[in-house]
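Narrative summary of target 7.
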Amino acid sequence: MGGHPFDDAFAVMKSMQAELNQLKYDVQEERHLRAKEVGELQREVRHLRSQLEQALMDLSVANERVTNALTSETSLRGRALEMLRTEVADAIKRASEVEHLKTVQATQFGKLAAELKLERSERQAAQTTLDAMLNAEVQTRTEEGAGHAKDMAQFRRQWEATVMQDRELFALLVKDVQAAGDLLAGNVAKETNPRLSADVQSVTTAAPNSPDNMQLLDVGSRPCSSP
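Modeled conformation, tokenized:
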């Protein structure tokens, strides 16, 4: 006696069930992998964000320190200038009040005027140096701020590229699932139509390495992202 007439169909169903189970397993593995990658990306984003916040805090502290130093120096220079003005006014007042000491005071006043001129020149030079230092500091901070902004823009572009790549990969996975569903539907159709199944089997047997058959095998062996 020959085999049961449904043995071949039962074998095909078992093979399809095994392929379906393998596809489900591959989908689950892919989900775990994507979830792990997303978690790593989120951790990296949080780390970069904390570094950026720390850099901004450091920059704010440095700017506040420079501002305080500038305020203190300006206050000191203002008091010194006020004292100098007071001394000059007092010297002029005494020179006008003490007329009989003109000759003696003329020499002393000339000396004092020279000292005041020298002091003023020194203070102007110091002020010029301070202005140059402040301008250099402002330029440095501006360049650092531009660098931080550039780094932030680069980070945003990388993040957007990563998100776009993830979306493209997800779209590919969806296409693979659809292709697997189409392949599965094609196998079911072959079971319901023995003549079509025999024709497909004969074509596959006659040309196993043809582009169409290789494409079918390639689509069936791809991992997919959802059942």
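DSSP finds four helices and no strands in the chain.
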